[in-house]
Amino acid sequence: MQQNEAVIIDAVRSPFGRRAGALREQRPDTLLADTLQALLTRTGAPVECVGDVLAGCVSQAGEQGGNIARQAALLAGLPEQVPGVSMNRMCGSSQYAIHAAAQAVAAGDMPFAIACGVESMTRVPMFTDLTLGRHEFAGFDNLHPSLLKRFAIPHQVESAERIAEQWGLSRHDLDSYAMLSHQRAQAAKVAAKHTELVPRTGLDKEGQSLILDYDEGIRAHIDPERMAAMQPVFRRPEQGGQITAANASQMSDGAAAVLIGQRAIAQDYGMRPQARFRARVVTGSDPILQLTGIIPATQQALAKAGLSLQDMDWIEVNEAFASVALCFIREFSPDMDKFNPWGGAIAHGHPLGATGAGLMAKMLAGLRDTNGQFGLQVMCIGHGMATATIIERLNP
Q: In the UniProt record, does the keyword Transferase occur (predicted)?
């Protein structure tokens, strides 16, 4: 056993709600605080030994401003000496929070740390102006002119279109993959696979209280003809547009949290660590295609771990767009039974800052369910970056 070896004790997540859906009245700070409480209750972690709370959050404004990590930690009842930091690596924010928490624990800086993430895309819409703190579309208009001149960084939807072109993906390919994501997510939902989920109280369309214990965006039935008739969201059809709302990730509300600790100390407290880290990677990539960093990130993570993709029992690739998942499939030819087995963000949603920790919680549950050993999680990030993590399940 390595000295100060960082291990994952456990991970939980809220159900992911549709934008303006069941979690629409849930403040993100409360949503994260309740998720932290659920993690602490499940693990029995000694709260006085938690050295930091690291939270991924992309739109840090309004109810998500003012360092939501610290606010959520206090709301969750953690001792006031437990600090918090909010970080933004765009879609990879809470996966990077996991990396940073593991590094702090492995360095011996603290015995335990919580990596987490939250995003309410209902209450703090994407591209909220971070300076004004109000719901004003900022987007790519605020990028530095020199960057735009040098790289001509496009909107992510345009990058997804270019990926489809470069890998020769048809609209049928994209829509078929999106249907598969929903089918797999629905099957996992019906089979009650998601042991990482912590139910939330929400509201139905009429405003009546309900218990949300599933990801709200999953569609049990999809009409292929209706899907094929949907218009592209960025390029016009005559321009070859193929990316639609149906073959892209859903905007969502959600939170997730992962407890990381030193293995020996965790065992002294009677905890049963779930997994250890075999590789942690963050990398830059082409800022124009911008979503293809998952390819070099995967290659680097496998090399660091001394493993092959065939060694992976679970492969979790964030489905920002169907073209992103399909370019990975074209490049690596993974065993499709092990690739996003319970569907992905096209079906269950993508609450930006929460997704990285949410996918880790989901992957851990999947490895437990399948008695798997190794898992790979990889996420594309705007402006050309990616995060990748390989974990090894302990005590299988």
A: yes
Active site residues: 91, 350, 380
* Cα separation, 279 vs 390, whole angstroms: 5
Question: Residue 207's CB: how many other CB atoms inside 10 A?
Answer: 8
Q: What is Dmax (Cα atoms) for the chain?
A: 64
Rama region for 142: left / alpha / beta (φ>0; ψ in -120 to 50; rest) = alpha
Buried b (16+ CB within 10 A) or exposed e, 214-231: bbbbbbeebeeeebeeee
Collapsed DSSP state (helix, strand, coil) of residue 279: strand
CA-CA distances (angstroms) from residue 42 to 8, 12, 37, 394? 13, 9, 9, 18
Residue with tokens 């070859």: 240
Nearest-5° Cα angle at 59, 234 to 365: 90
> Tokens 């016009």, residue?
236
Structure tokens at 262: 């030193």
pLDDT along the chain (396 residues), means of 10: 90 98 98 98 97 98 96 98 98 98 98 98 82 45 81 91 98 98 98 98 96 98 95 88 97 98 97 97 97 98 98 98 98 98 98 98 98 98 97 89
pLDDT value of residue 135: 40
